[in-house]
């Protein structure tokens, strides 16, 4: 099995792609690239069995409806609802609230934070993948699944804060050590120095690991009343099993 992880940014700078090959009892990081353009991302995802993208794959339904109403001059605030409550419903997706309840971290708002620029790029990438015949479902079925590396790290008992940016390279190096200790079956190979020197490269590897969890049905999926929103807004797959479960040869969802 080949899984791909994409730490997506609005521009190639800050974008990383990792490829992980899975064999019996072992996972090998086959390639990690930083500074990746759209064509290379599409090519990598197109040959993957599962690809995890660290970026919102859609916008809140309520936000889209709000923009449509605003475009025609018919915005109304629900009666009896505090303004901050109403704005939160516009700003956060169903999956964001699910993640917040599960791990205590609220993802960036695709409607109100700068991550929206990255989501625009993701939307174009998904469209290109679909045009190439790749099955795309924002809810996680098909080749692509939305992931949140910080949440995956927290669930797997690893530090999930304080390792980003150049000033925190010692913490990133420590995090790499801790990942290797927790997953001795993971071979970073020649790409280990890059993972120690770039949080984007490291997050791309974590995204590829999370994609493996999703492929094995070892990640959260939307409940029946969340499916419709997930297919429009996107759905963050949270691992539901320890790291070691990723190499135990469980059946892959078809």
From TrEMBL:
Pfam families from the UniProt entry: DUF429
InterPro entries: DUF429
Protein name according to UniProt: DUF429 domain-containing protein
Lineage, uppermost ranks: Bacteria, Bacillati, Actinomycetota, Actinomycetes, Micromonosporales
